[in-house]
Design a protein that fits this description.
- By secondary structure, the protein is mainly α.
- The chain has one domain.
- The protein contains 11 helices and no strands.
- It is globular.
- The two termini are 15 Å apart.
- 23% of the residues are buried.
- The mean pLDDT is 85.
């Protein structure tokens, strides 16, 4: 039951993460430093992420030390946490912003998007192409155009449900019902609009808009710490 509830919360949380990445890239003083911090955040979150979804590697007692190292490496890089997807989106935003000045052309931008989708799907980035397109949606569609965002969000989610159902084995309509949990993501939009209004109010107060290093550390640590907590709950109560 706990795991099911986490899936629901995750569907709502992901669009919020995507929105915050776009806003963060817009407002940061140094996009390069922002990307570096996001990269460090992704690396730090990787081990907690794998522990949460896969636990520790097994079958290590009868292998050589080199094989142990190789298995541990493969285990913890078999999938990648959502931080890497957000990092990919932030890098794309950096390039797209430069494109406004240097005009890379439609073909190059299309290649950038295709390459990013390929990387996210091939390396198993959490959220995959769906998360990446969420970031692009918030980048290209201004938040003042709420109707357009809602429509695009609905189309994106329904497309993702169909994509997952077609790619999986089993009864198609049952799979559509199973993956329809994805539609809960649309509920993130009202939260995002409230969050955006609060961000505007805070930005008007220069004193409140300054974050000290402890607040930044707290914000970045919530994601990996909560995954370690879930892993701990699994070990204590479910022995998995």
């Amino acid at each position: 039951m706990i795991i099911v509830q986490i899936h629901y919360y995750g569907r709502i949380a992901l669009p919020i993460f995507a929105f915050l990445i776009v806003e963060g890239m817009k407002k940061t003083k140094s996009k390069k430093n922002y990307i570096i911090r996001l990269g460090i955040f992704s690396l730090v979150s990787q081990i907690p992420y794998i522990l949460m979804i896969k636990g520790m590697p097994v079958g290590m007692s009868e292998v050589t030390e080199f094989e142990k190292i190789l298995r541990i490496f493969n285990h913890f890089t078999s999938l990648f946490n959502v931080g890497f997807t957000l990092l990919l989106g932030a890098i794309s935003i950096y390039i797209l912003d430069k494109n406004k000045k240097e005009k890379y052309g439609t073909l190059n931008i299309s290649l950038l998007i295709l390459l990013s989708v390929y990387i996210s799907e091939t390396f198993g980035f959490d959220g995959g192409f769906y998360s990446y397109f969420l970031i692009l949606m918030f980048y290209f569609i201004p938040i003042k155009n709420k109707i357009k965002q809602i429509v695009v969000m609905a189309i994106l989610n329904m497309s993702y449900v169909l994509y997952m159902a077609i790619g999986a084995k089993g009864d198609f309509f049952q799979l559509v019902g199973l993956y329809s949990i994805q539609l809960y993501s649309i509920l993130a939009l009202p939260v995002i609009y409230v969050l955006y209004n609060n961000m505007i109010m805070i930005s008007r107060n220069k004193k409140d808009s300054r974050e000290n290093n402890w607040i930044k550390l707290l914000k970045y640590s919530i994601y990996p710490v909560h995954m370690l907590m879930i892993y701990g709950i699994r070990i204590l109560f479910f022995s998995i």
